[in-house]
Amino acid sequence: MKTNKMILAVMLSAVSYIQVAAQGFRKESFPEDSYSPVTNVNRGSYPRVLSDNSVMFRVNAPKAQSVQIDLCGTKYDMQKSDGDMWTVTTKPQVPGFHYYFLIVDGVSVSDPASQTFYGCSRWSSAIEIPEAGMDDFEVQDLPHGEVRTVHYYSKVDESWRPLMVYTPAGYNENNQAYPVVYIQHGGGEDHRGWMEQGRTAQIMDNLIAAGKAVPMIIVSSNSNVRSRNGGFGGGYSWQGMQSFRSELIDNVIPFVEKNYRVKKDRKYRAMCGLSMGGGQSFYIGLRDPEVFANVGVFSTGMFGGIAGASNFDLETEVPGMMTDTKNFNQQFDVFFLSCGEQDPRIEYTRNIVKKMHDGGVEVLFNSYPGDHEWQVWRKSLHEFAQYLFK
Hints:
Layout: H1 2-23, E1 48-49, E2 55-60, E3 67-71, E4 74-77, E5 79-81, E6 85-89, E7 96-104, E8 107-109, E9 116-119, E10 122-129, E11 146-154, E12 159-167, E13 180-184, H2 192-196, H3 200-209, E14 217-221, H4 242-259, E15 269-274, H5 276-287, E16 294-298, H6 314-317, H7 325-331, E17 334-340, H8 346-358, E18 364-368, H9 374-387
Parallel strand pairs: 13-14, 13-15, 15-16, 16-17, 17-18
Antiparallel strand pairs: 1-2, 2-6, 3-4, 3-7, 5-6, 7-8, 7-10, 9-10, 11-12, 12-14
């Protein structure tokens, strides 16, 4: 029965796509000051963002008994009207990038009117709501770098694995070596997250062109790696990081240094990441100072705010941080933490930063409006990049 429902949902989605596409050829009227977000397929009519940042959805599903929109975990019941059309308007949304799904007769599917992105451990639809004053997240008329997908052989996973690599404008025209940032995604995402949802290329192009950041290479790897000898590359513990630590240090970095013109000194390497990737950056970056001199930790839950996180002891997790603080500080040029102000992790992060400051640890910290979401992480990269390699 569940299989039949899923087949029905897919068929309805296909019908919806065809009918919505056909509707694009006839003139429609929309609420004043509303717009079609860039995340729509071919900038189609729906979903549609209204002037107060609420979102109007319209789905053609003539055989469905019920249709819902699941937007950032909030479910909205759609009402059938105008023949076969189901419609609903959400409450106003904060600016940024928001995953969503259609739920057709109880089956969650991607919306064929939206582009799809790998997030929430599946292919997801999304709404992009721009934020005023954040032009650095948009494509502008200036020199652009490139994002390439390449593959390396992993001796940990014993397979070929992908990397996405940003090279700055001018890389192909000169012979200079560049500093490099190894940037990590969160749980339920992969190497595509930072380059697609995170807008890494747009952020770096704009910062570099404005002289706010030095030209650098950024490498986004898939940290969902499982060792053939057992052990998964996740978990908020030093032991839980070992598979990915080996993947990064023994496989990814050597591949990058062989195939790209990068500076190989530790002072010209940085590691950063969001959520799960923030935990990886904390442990691997701070416990391997011979590899990294710059570390950024965005919205990690290991300090608290998520299930299983409690009684985090800085000295136990990073030996020497609190007992040999002078030496710890000398090892790192940049140590930066960030979190969203509406994220359940925020108070725990502020408390740990206070402990660091009270103990003399030289750590930079900032928070931004938002929950556990991409707009916060884009701003985190935007700030972190401006501190690096200067």
